[in-house]
Specification:
With 483 residues, this protein is an alpha+beta fold. Helices cover 15% and strands 39% of the residues.
Amino acid sequence: EVPYIISDEERAAFKNLTTDEERENFIESFWERRNPDPGSPENEFKEEYYRRIAYANEHFSSGVPGWKTDRGRIYIMYGPPDEIDPHPSGGTYNRTPEEGGGRTVTYPFEHWRYRYIENIGENVVLEFVDPSGSGEYHLAYDPGEKDALTHVPGVGLTQLEAMNLASKADRFTNTDGTTLGQPLGIREDEFSRLDRYYRIFKAPDVKYKDLQALVTSRLDTRLLPFDVREDFIRVTEESVLMPVTLQVANRDLEFVDKSGVMHASLDVFGQISSVGGKVVSRFADSVALDVPKGEFARFADMTSAYQKSVPLRPGLYKLTVVVKDTQSGKAGSLEVGTRVPHYLDEQLSSSSLILADVVQPLPTRQVGSGPFVIGGMKVRPSVTRTFTRNQNLGLYLQVYNLGIDPATRRPSVEVHYDIVKDGTTIVSKDENPAQLPTTSQEIVLAKTLPLKSLQPGKYTIAIRVRDKVRKQTVTPTETFELR
């Protein structure tokens, strides 16, 4: 039903699908990409497309359905023309100077004029000819095709032919594929005519944002694999900051050499919606990756990360993220459900326990907002929580609502770390109380642990924080893998 508007890439992708569910998801995504209002259940583009098919079937049928004819195809692709010059019976016709002038007799034909067609140009005139008289008009490349007297000697002459300044036989030796006589003045060059004829049948470009449309469809695209992680940092009781971190393997990206610098770029689009489907936040960014050619071999074995922090109220949400490699055109999308926690004022609680490959203080001038910045620290999460033995395990945790000891007017806290493998505690360590910044009801734990002494495998780390004033304890845990 969509042969005229489907792109070559979409056609190839559809042919590779193997299940009905995949095809149904593809069709949904196909229409959503063309939706003027992505996410809206009413798709004006789709409705107009089928209205045009119905119109074509009603007005252009001639032994075949109207939507399959050339006039139907053009009408479906570009809508009604701004002007139509019909000649339903053919008959006597005075040629234009470009066609050589003179009078002839024609088959039925129509001129359709569009003031503007995107990617084709202004004042686009298309000629449809019905040489069989059956009502089946086809788009003519040769303006001489409508001339019913072309092959009849001595009649239907052009102006120069009538003056014996040209021969009608010369029409059949034209190199531009037409059967026109010599023009009176300048004629459109054959390359422009060929280019227009080719482009008029090419599927129109998708007008709306590919990434945003992918976000709002259910099609899970995995041509470009990546990982995503959400963390939660309390701002107030009713406001939470959710850093969304993406990680992609550099080897999955297409790099190009630009004067000795290997360059790749990504487009990122994200959308956060409520369980009722209401969009509450969106973000979009372009990310450039540049590395000297001499360092590229090492860089290709690494990963690159992107982060966007979004303020949200406590509750349930759906996070959908799309990443597109602008060089290769490959895209991937992920959709996850997430619960933003509600931090009660009188209850001991904590942020997400973030395992990171970078945890370090920032210079004073860099403190503030930005990717991988939490307060005065740079914290770059390891999205896959995978480390090597020559790395340090970065830990970041905020603890909220500590009780204040009336005697010291300070919190009193115990912090203990456990690293467990296969049910056996491998590392057990207490935090030195003197190193805890306990001057308020909130503490920040930011440190690194060496991994050299650990063997490869899967581990669980637990940080137990005990508030000795309120007699409350929180023990956030996280898993990681050592390779």
